[in-house]
Amino acid sequence: MKLIRNLKVRQKLILLISIFTIALLLLGFVSISSLSEGRKSADTLYNKQLKPSLMLSGISVNNRAVNAYLLEMLLTEDHDRNKYLNERLDVNIDETITYSQTLESMQLPSEVEKQLDTLITLDMEQNVLRKKVRELAMENKNAEAYQLFQNELEPIRVEINELLTELEESNMQSSERVFGEVIETTEKATNSVIVTIALAIIITITVGLVIARFITKPLRNIQELLGLVENGDFTVKGDYQSKDEIGMLNASFNKMVEGVNNVIRTVGSTSEQVAAASEELSASAEQSTSASEHISQTTQELVVGADNQVEIIKDSTNLIGQIDHETQEVMNNTEIVSHTVNEASRLSGEGRKVINEVNNQMQFIDKTVRSLVVSFAELSTRSREIGQIIEVITNIAAQTNLLALNAAIEAARAGESGKGFAVVADEVRKLAEESATSARQISQLVAAIQQDTDQTMKMVEDATGEVEQGMTVVHLAGDTFGEIESVISKAVPQIEGIKGNVEKLLTSTNEVNHSISEVSEVATETAAGTQSVTAATEEQLASMEEITSSSQALASLAEDLQTLIRQFKI
């Protein structure tokens, strides 16, 4: 968790997208692996079970055919028929040998191979005896051939049939076992895909919520702190520590609050000093005014007081300069914070655009899949309509056949004059039968097409469900980006408000600095006036009045500054 917290916001978003991509790749890998296992099982079932069964069935059928041909040769003395039967025997025996060789080339269990060797040996003996029987039959020695068939060939034939039966039963049991394994493999593959999908969804949602919490929680905390600062509470401090942009924003916020605290303390202290100095200056001016007739006696004391006043004003000027410098630094820090938040807002907007693009693609896929569902539904409807049309054609063909039969009957009743009409009626009946046959074939094809269409529609509907799940995940990610962007958008006005307050503080500081400069000028003039003992009493009184006015203005500015400072909590 600490490692994720220290990642940049962009890296966190990339991590979330990477986990989602890995989950999709894992799902694809498991699905492909499951399909591969199913294909291997199907190949095994075909090559090691179904194909041997076909070969054994072919051998059994050919043996029966050969025995039937031999018996027919023994029952007929027609030379041409015997020649035809002999050719058919060659064809069937060659096919049996081909089937046997194919079985020998297959990788079969050891027990089956032993039985197969026995079968091939018996078949060779059987072929030798068959050849003798065929030669006798070709010479029309049917009685001798039948005796050889019954005494020597029949026991081998019975033994071969029993052996073929055992092989077929053994292969059937093995096929059932392999089929069970195929079913088990398919169920395992299905369970693996389901588990993978569930894990991918759980991991993606969990990581997404964790990353969203890492982003939104500290932003909400900073937002709350900015609200307190906006109300003048500068005692707050953010406690979120991380190396990401939000952690840097929190550290900058703490530095800004600390800097503002120092500035406010300094301004408060300086304003108190300025107020005290202004009061002292005002008291001195009043005393100087009331004692203007004794100015010659108190000139030296006034010079000392004026010098002290100039020094105090210089110190105040230096303090105000420091306040102005520190306020400018706070202003700069505020601009940095504003720039950082705007950059975070921009990155959040870019992430939201990417999620919107993914959402548009998912919506396009969903629209396409739904269009496929509609198209297949229309295809199914058209197939049913074709079936109805074929049914009508079949009924018409049946009625035409019935009319042709009736026409043939009427032509037969008409005798010699109805023969031509009978030929036409027979042709019409044949065409009606061919139409009915073609209609049945088309009906079967339409039924097969409709079945395939229904299966395809089911697959497309399943795909629609997967697309809807993908759209749900994308909507969740989009909502998370929206929440991030909303929080950042709320933070920007808060920072702008702080920036405005700091600008106001900087303006007030400049005004104080200007007032103190004026006071400094007045104090300098006062010092010069007190040193010029030769000046008239009226000029001295006017100078004291100016000092009184300036000191009152300074006191008023000091009070205003203290009132402004009291609004802040430090």
Automatic annotation (TrEMBL):
Domain HAMP: start-end pairs: 213-265
Top-level taxonomic group: Bacteria
Pfam families, per the entry: 4HB_MCP_1, HAMP, MCPsignal
Protein location: Cell membrane
Comp. bias intervals (Low complexity): 278-293
Chain segments carrying region Disordered: 278-298
InterPro entries: Chemotax_Me-accpt_rcpt (IPR004090), HAMP_dom (IPR003660), HlyB_4HB_MCP (IPR024478), MCPsignal_dom (IPR004089)
Similarity remark: Belongs to the methyl-accepting chemotaxis (MCP) protein family.
Keyword set, alphabetical order: Cell membrane, Membrane, Transducer, Transmembrane, Transmembrane helix
Entry-linked Gene3D superfamilies: 6.10.340.10, Methyl-accepting chemotaxis protein
Residues in Methyl-accepting transducer domain copies: 284-534
Protein's name in the database: Chemotaxis protein
Cited CDD domains: HAMP, MCP_signal
GO molecular function: transmembrane signaling receptor activity
TM annotation in the entry: 193-215
SUPFAM superfamilies per UniProt: Methyl-accepting chemotaxis protein (MCP) signaling domain
GO cellular component terms listed in the entry, alphabetical order: plasma membrane
Main location: membrane
Source organism per UniProt: Ureibacillus sinduriensis BLB-1 = JCM 15800
One BP annotation, GO: chemotaxis
